[in-house]
From TrEMBL:
<keyword id="KW-0812">Transmembrane</keyword>
<feature type="domain" description="Rieske">
    <location>
        <begin position="89"/>
        <end position="159"/>
    </location>
</feature>
<dbReference type="InterPro" id="IPR006311">
    <property type="entry name" value="TAT_signal"/>
</dbReference>
<keyword id="KW-0472">Membrane</keyword>
<keyword id="KW-0411">Iron-sulfur</keyword>
<feature type="transmembrane region" description="Helical">
    <location>
        <begin position="12"/>
        <end position="34"/>
    </location>
</feature>
<protein>
    <submittedName>
        <fullName>Ubiquinol-cytochrome c reductase iron-sulfur subunit</fullName>
    </submittedName>
</protein>
<dbReference type="Pfam" id="PF00355">
    <property type="entry name" value="Rieske"/>
</dbReference>
<dbReference type="InterPro" id="IPR014349">
    <property type="entry name" value="Rieske_Fe-S_prot"/>
</dbReference>
<dbReference type="InterPro" id="IPR017941">
    <property type="entry name" value="Rieske_2Fe-2S"/>
</dbReference>
<keyword id="KW-0408">Iron</keyword>
<keyword id="KW-1133">Transmembrane helix</keyword>
<keyword id="KW-1015">Disulfide bond</keyword>
<keyword id="KW-0001">2Fe-2S</keyword>
<dbReference type="InterPro" id="IPR036922">
    <property type="entry name" value="Rieske_2Fe-2S_sf"/>
</dbReference>
<keyword id="KW-0479">Metal-binding</keyword>
Length: 166
């Protein structure tokens, strides 16, 4: 193979050099800005945080509504969020159910309808759930109510995140 003589003109050399230097300068300015913008979103949150909700002495065999608040961080914004749980005691077991209907996200109520006593009822789309959160066949919800992770420490019920019962 024969070698070809490739000469670079001054104009091409200056173009290549200025383009390279400009690219490094742009990257040096843009990368810290991009990291500043994206870094809070990529930080790992505290998984498994449990929040004190109720005392075990307050619980009965009938589901009771308990509201609880916590601070939620979304990127740079921190807000006070309020959630609800239906909690009851079945023998030695404590059950905490989410009030969010698994059909379209409406709020269910215990004994919310006179026609269906001893059930969780969603008035928006006539969803019906048993006391343990399982959905009644033939009704709009296709899965049970989500159940909260819970711990009992020193007579206090602590709730984590709601998880599907499937």
């Amino acid at each position: 193979m024969s070698e070809k003589n490739h000469n670079v003109s001054r104009r091409q050399f200056l173009t290549y050099t200025l383009t390279g230097v400009g690219g490094f300068m742009a990257a040096g300015m843009l990368l810290p800005m991009a990291r500043f913008a994206i870094d809070p979103v990529l930080q790992v949150g505290a998984e498994g945080d449990f929040i004190a909700v109720a005392e075990v002495d307050e619980l009965t065999e009938e589901p009771q509504r308990f509201d609880f608040s916590f601070e939620q961080e979304d990127g740079w914004y921190t807000s006070e969020t309020t959630n609800t749980a239906w909690i009851y005691q079945e023998g030695d077991e404590i059950v905490a159910l989410s009030p969010i209907c698994t059909h379209l996200g409406c709020t269910v109520n215990w004994e919310g309808s006179d026609d269906y006593p001893e059930h969780f009822y969603c008035p928006c789309h006539f969803g019906l759930f048993e006391k343990d959160g399982t959905n009644v066949p033939g009704r709009p919800p296709t899965e049970p109510l989500h159940r909260y992770e819970l711990e009992v420490r020193d007579g206090t019920v602590y709730l984590g995140r709601p998880e599907p019962q499937i």
